[in-house]
Amino acid sequence: MTSLNTRRNFIINTGKAGAGLWVGSTLFSSCSVLNKASSNKLITGFQQQPLPYSYTALNEAIDGTTMEIHYSKHAAGYAINLQDAAKNEGVDMNKPLEDVLGRISKYSIKMRNNAGGHYNHELFWKTMTPNGAEKPSGKLSTAIDENFGSFDAFKTQYSDAGKNRFGSGWAWLIINKDKKLQIGSTPNQDNPLMDVAEIKGFPLMGLDVWEHAYYLRYQNKRADYITNWWKVINWNFIQDRYQVAL
Ligand SMILES: [Fe+2]
User: Fold this and answer.
1) Rounded CA separation 200/196 (Å)
2) The pTM is what?
3) pLDDT tens, residue by residue, 88-107
4) Dist. CA 19 → ligand 1 center (Å)
């Protein structure tokens, strides 16, 4: 599906073209027809989706054993615990997960950790591909150059966000409320859709810098993991996400 068609379908399904996507709770909770958009790239459910490639497909950057444990144990656990929290706290799992994330301060720590963990990993898998381009093109490429000076400068700033995140967490590229690209990071399983996050916006791509994402091959060398991670980025997916969210 082209970006244009994706955007058109999103508009049809929500009836809210350009209506502040990054303030998820406001948009999502007001659109009862949004459930029909469950296949849309911007909407996340409560179930873990199939990995879009084999465990060994990203071996250039991440080994198969790490991928298998990461997906089938860590990420699967977030989804299970999220569903458990949702049942206990009366959350309608037919609605988008983004609705919960935008109001996460109203829920338990268990919900915060697992809703974030599930959302972040669902995005993370799609952010990668074994056959990706080296860099983005089109509007996203132009926006990166305008915001950060060059693609290389963007890569350096984004990599630094991951390297410098103390402990466990995520590095992000987001569209902020001014529709500008912004780089930042969040601790633990928080993300920029959460009302408690220091950096708020709509996430285009996220980098998992928890040790479970890289420890088997890279041990303590997070920087080496990040360097190789750039080889498996799915720029088509990220560009689509950018176009739809604009
Ligand atoms: Fe992870």
Assistant:
1) 9
2) 0.86
3) 999 999 999 999 999 999 99
4) 31
